[in-house]
Design brief:
seven-stranded antiparallel sheet
């Protein structure tokens, strides 16, 4: 037996909880922006991935048109911070629906740090930060997909492996699952891709 749903016949709680409980784990873009008025904003987004490698472009989807969306629209800049298991409480706290004039770095007790290229600050406690400029914003029904071209990457030395890349076991990024669940970094194994 299988239960079948469609957008025209969704489950009782709707399609969003079905999508997020099924498509998991999802990495989290912890997006920091600066409003046109100079107010710092910070929010986690789990509809997030790499959209292109050359040029490097990240994709972050906002469900609704929140402060992050408005700030990126107005300034054309944002930072995708990669959090850690030790920052999960602050990441979750930064999802609170605060007024646009509230500085979420202050509200969450996090440290804003000057970025290298963009005006938006990065989170000093986050070991990886991708500074982005707006490439395109695609309106998708009640959501908006923000595509950002990476112009600078800042990585804390303590999470770097010998090959110069972030080590997953040192980074320990959390993920979003369904309902109110967050995921810890999973165990890993190495597998070489097959060659033709």
């Amino acid at each position: 037996m299988r239960t079948v749903h469609s957008p025209d016949d969704p489950p009782a709680k709707g399609m969003y909880p079905l999508l997020t409980a099924s498509i998991a784990p999802r990495p989290i873009a912890w997006v920091s922006t600066l409003s046109a008025a100079g107010v710092r904003n910070l929010a986690p987004y789990s509809f997030f991935t790499v959209a292109c490698a050359d040029p490097p472009i990240l994709s972050v989807t906002s469900i609704g048109h929140k402060d992050t969306y408005g700030n990126v629209r107005d300034t054309g800049e944002f930072v995708v911070n990669i959090g850690t298991e030790s920052l999960m409480e602050q990441m979750n706290a930064s999802s609170a629906p605060l007024a646009p004039e509230v500085d979420e770095f202050v509200a969450t007790g996090l440290t804003p740090e000057d970025s290298d290229v963009v005006a938006a600050p990065r989170v000093a406690e986050a070991p990886v930060a991708f500074e982005c400029v707006r490439h395109e914003v695609i309106e998708l029904g009640s959501s908006a997909m923000v595509l950002g071209r990476v112009v600078s990457v800042s990585i804390a030395d303590e999470v770097l492996a010998d090959d110069g890349l972030p080590d997953f076991g040192s980074l320990l990024p959390p993920s979003r699952l369904g309902r109110h669940q967050w995921g810890y970094a999973p165990r890993t194994r190495s597998m070489t891709r097959p060659r033709a």
